[in-house]
Amino acid sequence: MSTTSKTSILRVAHVYYKHKNVAKQQQFLADFGFIETERHGSKIYYRGYGSEPFLYCLEPGIEDEFGGAGLVVESLEDLEKARAIFPTASEVYDLVNVPGGGKCVTPQQKNRPVNSFQRFQKGPATVHKMGHFGMCVTDFQKAYDFYTKHFNFVASDVQYDEAGTDISAFMHIDLGEEFTDHHTFFIFQGPKSHVHHSSFEVHDFDTEVIGHDWLRAKGYRNCWGVGRHIMGSQIFDYWFIVEHYVDGDQVNCHTKTNRSAASPDGLHVWEMLNSLSGFVEYTKYNDNAFDTGLKSFMIY
Ligand SMILES: [Fe+2]
């Protein structure tokens, strides 16, 4: 029984491949030393002489293509852990018509069906959920102490200046073992107390960029992005006060706070250099007042 947050893998079990010339590959696999064990639909399963139900699954394809590897994990709990790693993971399901049976999680549901077309529609990037918001604060340490003392905010990333003084924190909501976004709230030291931006998650990269094109076609200009953050790893697209993002990191109670030096290069690893520069600063409060930026607490 594993006691860490890591998914406990016992062994690698099998691989999936697609081949254009199935007959030729069948011959090769036999010559290579595999033994055909079962056929289901268009899939041909091969075993070795060990106890693993199959080692190689051959499928016809329009290209020769690797379809991924199957890994055996220790327990049902590990399947759930594996599932939590991938935003697009399937539910746990029973393997039917597969040698050996068992239960399975598929991390990606991205396999494109062959003989069909992807036809994306132009339009706004439909928003999935609110992800985070952030405040510029005039007394970073006071603000940091406030949020972490009174709430289950825990820093995922903290950055410090040349003098070693902490100046920004990206905080997640501590939900214990449950995975949650790398940051739900962030604060950084600055001359005026104001909200920086609020951010909304979209479904995938296509959705985000289609939404970006849509806004541009409507005459809007963004202020930063599209790009890839470092802290939190999101693919971002900022429209001054609001942000579209996708593909952010997930953390839980086993994630250690990462500390690093702040630098101009520290905010993105790549960015499309066609945006306007600058955020709208909504300075609602007195310069030296500490305002939490919090409006309400709810229970649904
Ligand atoms: Fe953001």
Automatic annotation (TrEMBL):
Alphabetized PROSITE patterns for the sequence: VOC
Annotated organism of origin: Cylindrodendrum hubeiense
Protein name in the entry: VOC domain-containing protein
Keyword check for Magnesium: no
GO molecular function term, any single one: metal ion binding
SUPFAM superfamilies: Glyoxalase/Bleomycin resistance protein/Dihydroxybiphenyl dioxygenase
Lineage per the UniProt record: Eukaryota, Fungi, Dikarya, Ascomycota, Pezizomycotina
Keyword annotations from UniProtKB, A to Z: Metal-binding
Domain VOC: 129-256
GO terms, biological process: L-methylmalonyl-CoA metabolic process
This protein's GO CC annotations: mitochondrion
Record's keyword annotation contains Metal-binding: yes
